[in-house]
Write a structure and sequence with these properties.
It is a single chain. By secondary structure, the chain is an alpha/beta fold. It has three domains: 343 residues, Alpha-Beta Barrel (TIM Barrel); 135 residues, 3-Layer(aba) Sandwich (Rossmann fold); 115 residues, FAD/NAD(P)-binding domain (3-Layer(bba) Sandwich). A hairpin with a 2-residue loop joins strand 1 and strand 2. Helix 2 crosses helix 3 and helix 3 runs parallel beside helix 6. The longest helix is centred in the first third of the chain and has 21 residues. It is globular, with a radius of gyration of 27 Å. The model has no long low-confidence stretch (mean pLDDT 95). The protein binds adenosine-5'-diphosphate and iron/sulfur cluster. The site of adenosine-5'-diphosphate has 23 residues, from helix 16. GO terms for molecular function: dimethylamine dehydrogenase activity; FMN binding; iron-sulfur cluster binding; metal ion binding; trimethylamine dehydrogenase activity. Its cofactor is [4Fe-4S] cluster; FMN. InterPro entries: Aldolase_TIM, FAD/NAD-bd_sf, NADH:flavin_oxidoreductase, OxRdtase_FMN_N, TMADH/DMDH/HD_second_a-b.
Length: 678
């Protein structure tokens, strides 16, 4: 091990238990609810194998009143839930890691839809889901007693399941303890409301009882947001984040501190750099003598060491970096820093969870497939029958497929038309705010360049004849999908008058097309491309108008938690925004537009350049040419089905495994099945 990093591998005592190192795979949503225990265990076990010293269970409801109806979280309501948790603990501990569980009651974030019990909070309040017509009731003294009992009982069950550390969750605006603490939500006039001491009372009681129940067998940690960067900001404004730590200083065995709300805690690379939480959390270690854990999208061992040496944190927490590379600690231990598959900070993992799906990741296609498909993030089965494989195109799909097939032992050739390898991962990384997209190709290219059975040929456009001459055993077309210029987009599938002849596409802009002083970007894609180009061109001095037929800009960025910050970025950059505005034609006067809802004509938006970000259409010329020659091939990535980078990487990985013959031919993989009692 590199001695510079040895501090990361020093054990640390946390109450009655000792963590073997400083790496913590954090409690975070994984999209596998209590109904999918096998898949969830697969994710956690892989992390324990990858060297994380503590591996956490995601947020677990403690009783039926903390029901998060429809959101894929965990449950530890009663004895019946203990068995599944115990299995998870066993699998984590089998690899030498400690197992932790985050126990929480989500208060006015609960819904009570499946259980029928009302959501509860310090006061009568709307539940924290503004688009749901639900309210929370004010808890009376009996409710408070029952809640304390529920926390205590859940701690007892966590101990029974064998957990080493149980959390009292008090972070974000998703904890009832936070709701009691915050004057934005707590309007009580009894001993649980008003003064700081009164508002922190429930938190203190729950924590004291948790410690009592845990005894000398299990540590009790607290997760608490010391700073509110969005939301009602009452804790920030009054400086009470610090007051809470001072008041409860040495009561928990470990402080796990972060910022609120979730959208700021999980800041993307576009808006927050590695280690961005330090300015808010650095005071904590000066206030408590207990170990302090924190996050910050850490992927660099130097940054981690610096946090510990400078006394900011004792333990390095990672949610997204552990998704992108479950073997990150092991790679540092073995001195394989270049092998780390660094999180790109895109929040696709968050986005899929918000729509109720199991985790997906741009960098790690094997996430969520550990149990059901048997995919390991590092190991690929070796072939006994070496083949000669040609991959056309070196974007995310081509490089991922090349890596899987080369690791299996095949002879792999990648031919790329451009002089630079990497496809969209290289090209899009040049746009302002998207430089981390380049990590997708950086990781894969570095790996491929180390392998003797791989040949990479940039500047090599291949046609059907060239492919036929090559005589490969398998051909994979990873040739991507160009953006359309004709205006056909997600809300309107037809071309728009004047677009095909005059509009620039993102491809042309990335290739350096000349752009006039004033620009209209028409966004019928609704993710990052249009607004990233807007920010980029605005920074280069162009006057930018951003027009979209949808009622709000970039709806998918609501799921990546970036939408409010992106809109603020557009405003600050002077980009004029036109939501609910449908393009009807482009001519020399500019973009003719109508209102999206009523169809009424709006004033023409004048500009010298039109850029359209609509849909993408694969070029099938090569596929048709190969079919005519009778050469078998697979089309992968964006060329098969245009999508986000995550889907291209996943496609490359899956197709490569299919070439290896390890995937079921009927496409049926293992599924979680409910038990039938009748
Ligand atoms: P994906 O996201 O599916 O990986 P990309 O668009 O990122 O797709 O990458 C596709 C790559 O394929 C581009 O870099 C492009 O230059 C390359 N390409 C397209 N057609 C050919 C071809 N005929 N020969 C070689 N490379 C090609
Ligand atoms: Fe990181 Fe993106 Fe993967 Fe999430 S999806 S872990 S942000 S690379």
């Amino acid at each position: 091990m590199d001695p510079r990093y040895s501090i990361l591998f020093e054990p640390i005592k946390i109450g009655p238990v000792t963590a073997p190192n400083r790496f913590v795979s954090m409690p975070h949503a994984i999209g596998h609810s209590y109904l999918m225990p096998n898949g969830a265990i697969g994710i956690r076990e892989t992390r324990a194998e990858g060297g994380w010293g503590i591996v956490a269970m995601q947020l677990s409801e403690i009783d039926p009143t903390s029901d998060l109806a429809g959101l894929p979280y965990e449950r530890l309501w009663d004895e019946g839930d203990v068995k599944a948790h115990a299995r998870s603990v066993d699998r984590i501990r089998a690899h030498g890691a400690l197992a932790s569980i985050e126990l929480g009651h989500t208060g006015i974030r609960s819904r009570g839809l499946t259980t029928g019990y009302p959501a509860m909070g310090p006061s009568v309040l709307p539940t924290l889901k503004p688009d749901m017509p639900l309210m929370a009731k004010a808890m009376d003294k009996d409710d408070i007693r029952t809640l304390r009992r529920s926390f205590r009982d859940a701690i007892g069950r966590a101990k029974k399941a064998g957990y080493d550390i149980a959390y009292v969750y008090a972070s974000h605006d998703a904890s009832i303890l936070w709701h009691f603490l915050s004057p934005a939500y707590n309007f009580r006039t009894d001993e649980y409301g008003g003064s700081f001491e009164n508002r922190v009372r429930l938190f203190r009681e729950v924590l004291e009882e948790a410690k009592e129940e845990a005894g000398d067998q299990m540590a009790v940690a607290v997760r608490f947001a010391v700073h509110e960067l969005s939301g009602p900001k009452r804790i920030l404004n009054t400086g009470e984040g610090r007051a809470v730590i001072e008041s409860l200083a040495d009561l928990p065995d470990m402080w796990d501190v972060n910022v609120s709300s979730w959208s700021r805690d999980s800041g993307t690379a576009r808006y927050d750099a590695e280690g961005f939480q330090e300015e808010f959390t650095q005071f904590v270690k000066t206030v408590t003598g207990k170990p302090v854990l924190g996050v910050g999208r850490f992927t660099s061992p130097d940054a981690m060491v610096s946090q510990i040496r400078r006394g900011v944190l004792d333990l390095i927490g990672a949610a997204r970096p552990s998704i992108a590379d479950p073997f990150l600690p092991e790679k540092i231990r073995e001195g394989r820093i270049e092998d780390i598959r660094e999180c790109i900070g895109c929040n696709m993992c968050v986005a899929v969870e918000t729509v109720g799906m199991e985790l997906r990741c741009t960098q790690n296609p094997t996430i969520s497939e550990e149990w059901r498909r048997g995919w390991h993030p590092e190991r690929i089965p070796k072939t006994e029958n070496e083949k000669n494989i040609l991959i056309v195109g070196s974007g995310p799909a081509g490089l991922e497929a090349a890596l899987v097939l080369a690791k299996a032992g095949h002879a792999v050739t990648v031919a790329e038309r451009d002089d630079e390898l990497g496809g969209r991962s290289t090209r899009e990384a040049r746009i302002k705010g998207l430089s981390s997209w380049g990590r997708v190709k950086d990781y894969r290219l570095y790996q491929l360049q180390q392998m003797p059975n791989v040949n990479l040929y940039p500047g090599s456009e291949l046609g059907a004849d060239g492919i036929a001459d090559f005589g490969a055993d398998h051909v994979l077309l990873a040739t991507g999908a160009p953006w359309r210029s004709d205006g056909a987009g997600r809300t309107r599938l037809q071309p728009i008058s004047g677009f095909a002849d005059f509009a620039l596409t993102p491809d042309l802009v990335m290739d350096g097309a000349a752009i006039g002083p004033s620009v209209v970007i028409y966004d019928d894609d609704h993710y990052y491309m249009a607004n990233a180009l807007a920010a980029d061109l605005s920074a280069k001095g162009h006057q930018v108008n951003l027009v979209t037929p949808m009622p709000s800009l970039s709806a998918w960025m609501g799921h990546t938690l970036e939408q409010p910050r992106m809109i603020a970025e557009m405003k600050a950059a002077g980009v004029r925004m036109y939501p609910n505005t449908v393009a009807s034609a482009w001519d020399e006067a500019g973009l003719a537009v109508i209102r999206g809802d009523t169809g009424e004509s709006l004033p023409t938006i004048s500009a010298t350049t039109l850029i359209v970000v609509g849909t993408r259409l694969p070029d099938t010329t090569l596929a048709v040419g190969l079919a005519e020659k009778g050469i078998p091939f697979r089309t992968i990535g964006d060329a098969e089905c245009p999508g986000v980078i995550q889907s291209a990487v996943y496609s490359g990985h899956r197709h490569a495994r299919e070439v290896l013959g390890t995937e079921p031919e009927d496409r049926i993989f293992k599924r979680e099945r409910p038990t039938l009692f009748l």
